[in-house]
Write a structure and sequence with these properties.
The chain is of the alpha/beta class. The chain has twelve helices and twelve strands. The longest helix is centred in the middle third of the chain and has 21 residues.
Length: 342
């Protein structure tokens, strides 16, 4: 089965095609430090044989957190708390990535100032963000660089830059939010500038042999917003700096998807895979093994991300292998539970 085939990108071989996507747990302390919950949460999915775990959106600045209880990686104390989680997960054969993020105008943490490309609040009642100066932009780029260096020192196998869901980089990319008149606004190329500069900065400190992922929202669900054709153009601009494309949609504005059904985002991921030639992760109510197998078998994506399904069942991979009679190397501690149907 395609689900259980390994896949190699640079020096990282992922043992199967199942990805646990980044999902905020809102469980860090107010200083952005991981705790026992995070250890249990992530290691249980590693024992359950997820091929790649992408750790939840992790702020590169205090005002880059989504909430007061989101993880951070802007200081060494935060890095020290994450390190044993990563090492434990890797002991079970799972590859570990971390998603670095700046929340931009969607920061709901108790911060005096929140940042955005333009002074436009997310929705009625949301705080008014500060339109970023070039100095602010430079500080954010430096923060991504510093966080990437810490991630490299921790020993992550891969790094993901969050350019989706209406957070800061996504805000710059979307014409709905970015109304700037300088070199960071206007044309597709200008709106992509901060993303390119972040990726270049990350590559200054990230090991060349390890992959860099980019998550994007390829559809804003608004007529004048981002659509797949323009996102493909953006991805091709940054293609020299990324190795895997993680495709999602929405979040830039509060407009919901036009329709939600199992695999509703796969078609857009397929379009970006064809347009860019990059290995691609798709997501969106993928819960069933045969559904995932069809996506992979038809080469619509290279990986399937199971978000809520892995929250419900940390051992989805093991259960799927057993139910489909697939020969798979289960953790030795659990072999007797899977070797026969008893």
């Amino acid at each position: 089965m395609y689900l259980f085939q390994p896949f190699t990108v640079k020096n990282m071989t992922i043992r199967n095609r199942v990805v646990m996507p980044p999902m905020c747990m809102y469980s860090a302390d107010t200083h952005g430090i991981a705790n026992d919950f995070h250890f249990t949460h992530y290691t249980s999915r590693a024992v359950g044989q997820a091929g790649l775990i992408i750790m939840e959106a992790t702020g590169v600045q205090s005002c880059g957190r989504i909430s007061d209880h989101c993880l951070g990686l802007w200081n060494d104390e935060q890095a020290e708390a994450i390190t044993p989680i990563v090492h434990a997960c890797r002991e079970y054969g799972t590859k570990m990535a971390i998603q670095l993020n700046h929340a931009g105008r969607k920061c709901e943490a108790q911060e005096k100032t929140i940042l955005a490309p333009s002074a436009i609040p997310f929705e009625d009642g949301s705080p008014m963000p500060k339109e970023m100066t070039k100095g602010d932009i430079k500080d954010v780029i430096d923060a991504f660089r510093s966080a990437a260096k810490r991630a490299a020192d921790i020993g992550f196998d891969a790094l993901e830059i969050h350019g989706a869901h209406g957070y800061l980089i996504s805000e710059f990319l979307s014409p709905l939010i970015n109304h700037r008149s300088d070199e960071y606004g206007g044309s597709t190329e200008n709106r992509s500038r901060i993303l390119i500069e972040v990726l270049k900065a990350v590559h200054e400190v990230w090991p060349k042999e390890k992959p860099v992922l980019l998550r994007v929202s390829a559809e804003d669900y608004e007529k004048d917003g981002m659509h797949a054709d323009e996102m493909a153009k953006i991805v091709n601009l940054v293609k020299p700096y990324i190795d895997i494309l993680d495709v999602s949609t929405g979040g830039v504005v509060s407009t919901p998807p036009t329709a939600i059904y199992p695999g509703y985002q796969v078609k857009i991921a397929e379009k970006l895979k064809e347009a860019t030639g990059l290995p691609t992760i798709t997501v969106g109510l993928i819960v069933e093994a045969h559904q995932a197998e069809e996506i992979l078998g038809e080469d619509r994506a290279d990986f399937v991300a199971l978000g809520r399904e892995l929250l419900r069942d940390p051992y989805w991979v093991l259960h799927t292998a057993r139910n489909l009679d697939v020969q798979y190397p289960f953790p030795e501690q659990y072999e007797r539970a899977f070797e026969a149907r008893k």
